[in-house]
Amino acid sequence: MSTPPIRAVLTDIEGTTSSISFVKDVLFPYARARLAGFVTEHAADPAVAGALAEARTLAGQPELDQEGTIALLTGWIDEDRKAKPLKFLQGMIWEDGYRQGVLKGDIYPDAVAGLTRWKDSGLSLFVYSSGSVLAQKLIFGFTHSGDLTPLFSGYFDTAIGSKLEASSYTAIASEIGLAPEEILFLSDNTRELDAAREAGMKTIGLDRGEVVIPPDTTHAIVKTFDAIDAKTGTVR
Fold first, then answer.
1. What is the pLDDT of residue 2?
2. C-beta of residue 154 within 8 angstroms of C-beta of residue 125
3. pTM assigned to the model
4. Which residue of 16, 95, 187, 230 shows the fewest CB atoms closer than 10 Å?
C-alpha cells in the first residue's frame, strides 16, 4: 500500500519556528516584570478575576489575597510551570506589548520562507505549542516579517492534551479532519516527535543548536526548514 501524501503540516514554535531564547529571555521576563502591575490594574476585569481564582484553586490555596496570588503566579513563572491561568495572564500582558510595538515575534527567516512556500503549494498549516492559543497568534501576528497568521488554518495548545501523549496528536488529526498519516509534525523535542509518530504522523526534528538531540534518535533531523520536503514528509 502506498504512503498517503502529506496534506497538512503541524508545527511546534519554541526551538522550531522561533528561538528558545526569545521565549525564555524576552517573553517570560517581560511578563514577570509586569505581572503585579497588570493584575493590580485589571483585577476587577472578570476574565482576570477568573484567572486569579482559578490559580488559587489550582494551588489549593483559596484563601490567598491579591498580593499572595501575584506571588504564587510569579513563582510559577520562575518554575516554568505550564498552568492555564498563568498562560492566560501572560498572553494578555504580551498582547499589550505586541500591540504597543514593544514586542516583535521572533520567527526564523527560513521558517517564514518555508511556511509561506508550503501554504502556497496547497498544504494546510497548523500550530501545536504549550503556549496558549492567544500567545501563538500573537507571536505569528506581530513579527518582523509582518502578520503571518493568514498562513495558518488552526492552533492547538495543551487544552487538547499533553504534547508527550500520542492521544493528543490523534485528537488533533481528528479536529483537522485528516488521517494522522497525512500530517507532518515538526518539533525540536524528540519525545514530542515520538508521541506524534506513535499516533501515525510523519515527523521531522529541528536542531537549532539550543537543545541536545539524542544521538540515537530515529527521527530525521534538519537544521532549517529549507531542508524539508513537506509534500512528502522527507528530508531533501
1. 66
2. no
3. 0.92
4. 95
